[in-house]
Amino acid sequence: MIIGHRGASGYAPENTMAAIKKAINMSCNGLELDVQLTKDQKVIVHHDWNVDRTTNGKGEIKDLTLDDIRKLDAGKWYSDEFIGEKVPTLEEVLLEVPENLFLNIEIKSKADDNRGIEKEVIELLNKYNRLENTVLSSFNHLCLERIRKINPEIKIGILFEAYLLDLFDYIKKFKAYSIHPCNYYVSKELIDKAKDNNMKVFCWTVNDKSRAIELSEMGVDGIITNYPDLLKK
Ligand code: G3P
Ligand code: CA
């Protein structure tokens, strides 16, 4: 599977409707999107903890309301062509994305944040009948534990930044659907172990064609990329 990272973020401002629509038009198999909770508990699609880099505003997402965030421009930082793009809500994205497109929703939540983003995300997926075709991933494994408690069936993806020697022992408790390693740590051995444990492997972020071919030959199930069209070829 070719999965657009933050949409087709090589061609449009990450995590905006413009990037999402481009990824859909590039016929990718799935979309990877980051989600966070605003001050007023709305689920928005956004990567950084603050709005400083990718909008014309300033401040932490957790300190801003959806109304505050909706006033910001999320396109100009990338190029003038995208002036007017907004930070979308997860709900808007679910309304736009065709049902057959696989979603990898990465929950960005700090370890001490107990406001319940997991519940909000699952409720939205349920409302739009997207639970089947979605994997919820996070670097915050407390968040994944909470997801598993809320829903014993939902697909969980374990994100990790460094390779853990006892990875498969450690992740047993999550009953995960997939592992999501940085592509540098992917080897044939890791993929075979994942298959033995009945888990899929989705690796990030691969923008180089020859590395994509190597990973594909090793047997990864999905590649997360900023350039879905290049990797499709
Ligand atoms: O989900 C894979 C990848 O997106 C994780 O890293 O920083 O791009 O969210 P980041
Ligand atoms: Ca991400």
Automatic annotation (TrEMBL):
InterPro entries xref list: GP_PDE_dom, PLC-like_Pdiesterase_TIM-brl
Domain GP-PDE as annotated: residue spans: 1-233
GO MF terms held by the record: phosphoric diester hydrolase activity
GO BP of this protein: lipid metabolic process
Pfam families recorded: GDPD
CDD domains found in the cross-reference section: GDPD_TtGDE_like
Domain of life: Bacteria
Protein name in the entry: Glycerophosphoryl diester phosphodiesterase
Source organism per UniProt: Anaerobranca californiensis DSM 14826
